[in-house]
Write a structure and sequence with these properties.
This protein has one domain. It is about 80% helix and about 0% strand. Helix 6 packs across helix 13. The longest helix has about 35 residues. The radius of gyration is 20 Å and the shape is globular. Pfam families: ArsP_1. This is Permease. Its main location: membrane. It is found in: Cell membrane.
Length: about 300
């Protein structure tokens, strides 16, 4: 609460110093306040999770998942995805490590889907901007899409289209000191923050423009109706950012009257389906698997969006 007040005072001071009023003042205030808040949350959460991840090796994940029944294994892969890095492209190296260590194909895919779509920092931010009901629905929806997608692609035999590869282990040695682990966590946190901070700034900036300048009826006119959810998914694919960058945009879209399910589908597609991700996946997947992966995840996201529109 104190930090929120500090962030608000900073944003108010800058808006006042710039002499802004009206819509411009509202947009800039939104931009500065949300950027500060999201960055602070990222700093705390990435450091904490980064430290915990120094204890996890791909081989340990393999051994744990291989001994579990199907449901528990896929759910475990989803949970591992939640505590991983923050965008689809940064998740791929970990996915490679899991595959190289022998983690079951479908569970590795579940991780690949869930990781960019849901993470611990996003959960905290979503709770703050959308409330616990929508945050819970988003988490359940994202886990469901990841689990069902990985399971179906395995049952349909698409593992034959995965290319063989090996990838190194970035976890700390067992006898590493706490200082060593903290240093690695700090280095990882710094790299992640450096890579995603521009997306946060741009994402919040887009949200600020929507919040301050775009009329409500313009949004509700073009992204409502029967095909609204599929259209939102298609629009989200070329928008490459991470989940933290798109949350402020979705907050503004919902505030302007865009249906909740349509907004969430847009957010999921931005996070889980991106052109740069598909380019990277070409190194480890054949085109048949990439096409099937994109199709199943898209259908899952559309289903979640339509369901949320019906429920909310």
């Amino acid at each position: 609460m104190v930090l929120k007040m500090v962030f608000k005072e900073i944003s108010d001071f800058i808006v006042s110093a710039l002499g802004l009023t009206g819509k411009a003042a509202a947009a800039v205030d939104f931009w500065i306040y949300d950027t500060l808040k999201i960055t602070f949350i990222l700093l705390l959460v990435i450091l904490g999770i980064g430290y915990l991840r120094t204890y996890i090796r791909p081989e340990d994940v393999r051994d744990y998942l291989q001994d579990k029944n199907v449901f528990v294994g896929y759910l475990g892969a989803s949970i591992l995805g939640i505590v991983s890095p923050f965008c689809s492209c940064s998740t791929i190296p970990i996915f490679l490590g899991f595959m190289g260590a022998g983690v079951p194909f479908g569970m590795a895919l579940t991780f690949l889907v869930t990781s960019p779509m849901i993470n611990e920092a996003a959960i905290f931010v979503l709770f703050g901007v959308l409330g616990w009901k929508l945050t819970t629905a988003y988490i359940v929806g994202g886990i469901t899409v990841g689990m069902v997608g990985g399971f179906l692609l395995t049952k349909l035999g698409f593992q034959k289209y995965a290319k063989s590869f090996k990838f190194g282990d970035n976890s700390c040695k067992i006898n590493s000191t706490t200082k060593d682990r903290l240093k690695q966590a700090y280095a990882e946190a710094k790299d992640i923050l450096k890579s995603i901070f521009p997306y946060v700034v741009v994402g919040v900036g887009i949200g600020a423009i929507i919040h301050g300048f775009i009329p409500r009826n313009l949004i509700t006119k073009y992204l409502t109706g029967t095909l609204a959810v599929p259209a939102a998914v298609v629009v989200g694919v070329p928008v490459y950012t991470n989940i933290m960058g798109v949350i402020p945009v979705v907050k503004s879209l919902i505030g302007k009257g865009l249906p909740i399910g349509t907004s969430i589908a847009f957010m999921m597609s931005v996070a889980a389906l991106s052109i740069p991700e598909f380019v990277l996946l070409k190194k480890v997947m054949k085109k048949e698997l990439i096409a099937a992966y994109a199709t199943i995840i898209s259908v899952g996201i559309i289903t979640i969006g339509i369901t949320l529109n019906f429920l909310f």
